[in-house]
Design a protein that fits this description.
This protein folds into 2 domains: 48 residues, no CATH class; 211 residues, no CATH class. The protein contains 10 helices and 2 strands. β1 and β2 form a beta hairpin. α5 packs across α10 and α9 packs antiparallel against α10. The chain has a two-stranded antiparallel ribbon. The longest helix is centred in the C-terminal third of the chain and has 32 residues.
């Protein structure tokens, strides 16, 4: 009787199709909920982690993020690593870390590499939005860096003076981050967090960690919304490829605009 009453009350406010029944207590919860707000039961029948499993998942996520953060801090703070060979080595190391952790749960994560519901319209929409957002951010952050810090964080003019140098810039600043940051953060880390907490919380946490890893306080205002968009896109589309394309287009547009300026 209580269940019917609750159902009638909710139907007066929202579509009943937006809700489902908890597999444990039978009460109504939102359709995209991983956990019941009434009894706390995980709604994924095929995966019901106990306390020890959750701790292991948290430790693995912390290890992934810790290794990534340490490498980023070294590359940012140690002047000796501010060279092209070391930059390539660091990018390679970060890529390897993403691949290793993504592969830890290959049976489940490999589904994110499939592009089942590909839409050319949706693809071009993401590309267009990425170009517009990157143009706005490129101008804004460049201006802020000059005004506040009296500097402009640009790559060496030597690389921009040749076609090979331009290829190196785009490859390591657009292609590599787009693939391996998505593989690591929207692939491994977000999937890991989804087993521990709700969808929204998992996206928010992974997005904040992604923004922090770039070690740029001035860029947080766009990095967090950027990561949130990629996170919720990965959840909705059940693939990382729209995120990879958006990420690549965003970074590539930024590089092209920097080339035009110089």
């Amino acid at each position: 009787m209580n269940y019917l009453t609750e159902k009638e009350e909710i139907s007066n406010k929202e579509e009943i199709s937006n809700y489902k029944v908890c597999i444990n207590c039978g009460k109504l919860i939102k359709l995209n909920s991983n956990f019941c707000i009434h009894c706390g039961k995980n709604q994924k029948i095929d995966f019901q982690p106990n306390s020890l499993t959750k701790i292991s998942l948290i430790k693995l996520a912390a290890l992934f993020y810790g290794l990534t953060l340490i490498i980023c801090l070294i590359s940012k703070l140690v002047p000796q690593f501010d060279t092209l060979p070391w930059s390539i080595t660091i990018d390679f190391s970060l890529a390897v870390i993403s691949i290793i952790f993504f592969s830890l749960n290959w049976k489940e994560n490999k589904e994110l590499l499939k592009w089942k519901n590909f839409s050319i319209i949706k693809l071009f929409t993401f590309v267009g939005i990425a170009i517009i957002c990157s143009s706005i951010v490129n101008y804004t952050v460049g201006w802020l860096n000059i005004v506040i810090y009296n500097k402009n964080d640009e790559y060496s003019e030597l690389l921009r003076s040749s076609y090979f140098g331009i290829f190196i810039l785009i490859f390591f600043n657009a292609i590599i981050p787009a693939i391996f940051e998505e593989l690591g953060f929207r692939g491994y880390l977000l999937s890991n967090l989804l087993k521990i907490t709700e969808v929204d919380q998992a996206v928010y946490v992974s997005s904040f960690l992604f923004a922090i890893i770039h070690l740029s306080f001035i860029s947080l205002f766009w990095l967090i919304p950027f990561a949130l968009l990629l996170g919720f896109t990965r959840i909705k589309e059940k693939t990382i490829w729209y995120g990879v394309i958006f990420h690549f287009t965003f970074n590539c547009t930024s590089e092209i605009l920097s080339l035009i300026k110089h």
